[in-house]
Design a protein that fits this description.
Layout: H1 6-18, E1 23-27, E2 36-43, E3 61-67, E4 70-75, E5 81-87, E6 95-98, E7 103-108, E8 113-120, H2 141-153
Antiparallel strand pairs: 1-2, 2-8, 3-6, 3-8, 4-5, 4-7
């Protein structure tokens, strides 16, 4: 049996704080070709999760917020925000399911935020066409800072 407890969340969050991307996964699936990917994703407030979608292969993405606070943004094809939801377990908002082809991202609002993600396997890195061309590249530090500031004003 695999247990999700405070100790595991704390350990994964500490690793996220040490990571240059301010994120760290803890995989429950043992192989990348497992038919179902299950993982913790620990994230810190300044992590940049670029707007993306899951097409070719089509994959639903489900995540439950175990700790912390984050906003899920949904976008149209031009990058306009069409929907947003604040995930905050203490406020009674726990997660989201995103269908394939839907542009989305998370903005992390509190330290030690951890989500439990489930999506179909096998693991496949996102193809470039699944990254939103209207959003900044991760290495564009100025663009990323401006974009994350913009998202924060939309909460």
């Amino acid at each position: 049996m695999k247990i999700i407890d405070k100790q595991l969340l704390d350990k994964t969050s500490e690793q996220a704080k040490q990571s240059p991307r301010l994120r760290m996964n803890y995989n429950f699936h043992e192989r990348l070709d497992d038919p179902v990917n299950r993982l913790l994703n620990a994230m810190e407030p300044d992590t940049y999760i670029r707007p993306h979608r899951h097409l070719n292969p089509d994959k639903d993405e489900i995540f439950l917020l175990l700790r912390g606070k984050a906003v899920v943004f949904i976008f149209d094809d031009q990058g306009n925000i069409t929907e947003k939801v604040l995930l905050a377990p203490l406020a009674g908002s726990y997660g989201a399911e995103i269908k394939p082809g839907i542009w989305h991202c998370l903005l992390v609002l509190e330290p030690d935020t951890v989500v439990y993600e489930v999506k179909p396997g096998p693991f496949a890195p996102l193809h470039p066409e699944n990254m939103a061309s209207w959003s900044p590249e991760p290495d564009d530090k100025k663009g990323v800072n401006e974009y994350m500031t913009y998202l924060a004003t939309q909460i």
